[in-house]
């Protein structure tokens, strides 16, 4: 204890005329003071060391973060460019799809015209652009996005665009083809309307065919320039094609007779009628009743004498009557009486 109670005196002599300063410390206080100074120095050194170590780590992490951010920014920019390209492709695909839809709608209209011309009554099932605006064409359901991997999106888009282009090319080629078909069909339909292809009467009983025969009144051989169809007096007689009436009169030996000009140098004539329903200049359509079967003029009984005249010359009417060829091939009720 005596050692600890000893004192030390510190003398500070300033410069000039200032007084001398003395500080008296016992050994315990001196030891504690020195210990505190050492501890403070050690703590300061440790703090400086830790501070520089942390600073170095923070700097390295900052550099690493900056590099990572740059990589991420580069990747993000690449994704943005890729997304912009995909959006452009999607827009182009959408435009192609809309163009294809419009062309399909036009083709469906052409199909409807073809069916109408051909007499097909079944309605065509179609999806048209107007369906999206119609109150009667509701649509719905859960939206399930289609996953498209970014790495394969471009290739998939390219393949889809190629497919669309191929389909659009086929549609563009099909449209004019269908229009050409419609025009050809309309032309054929018009040709069929003005071509005498149906029976001029309800009866199918042919009492005398075209060509040479024994005359039923004189008994001499003569040329029969038409087709005789037997029936009852007053039965309807029909125009066998569209045309214009050029003759409607009663003469001998023809009796009541009518001539129709069908164009293309084809005419038909109907003789021995009981009555005439049309006059010169009248327009008639195929299947229209123009008179009644009768027995006027030089005739042995009720019948229709039917002639087909091509380029001014009489021809056999039978090949023109399509029903006759069909019925004959199927063995239906056609009677020929000489």
Automatic annotation (TrEMBL):
Identification of the protein by name: Peptidoglycan DD-metalloendopeptidase family protein
PANTHER family referenced in this protein's UniProt entry, alphabetically: LIPOPROTEIN NLPD, PEPTIDASE-RELATED
TM annotation in the entry: 28-52
Key words, A-Z: Coiled coil, Membrane, Transmembrane, Transmembrane helix
CDD domains (UniProt xref): M23_peptidase (cd12797)
Keyword check for Transmembrane helix: yes
Organism of provenance: Paenibacillus chungangensis
Origin superkingdom: Bacteria
Domain M23ase beta-sheet core: from-to ranges: 223-317
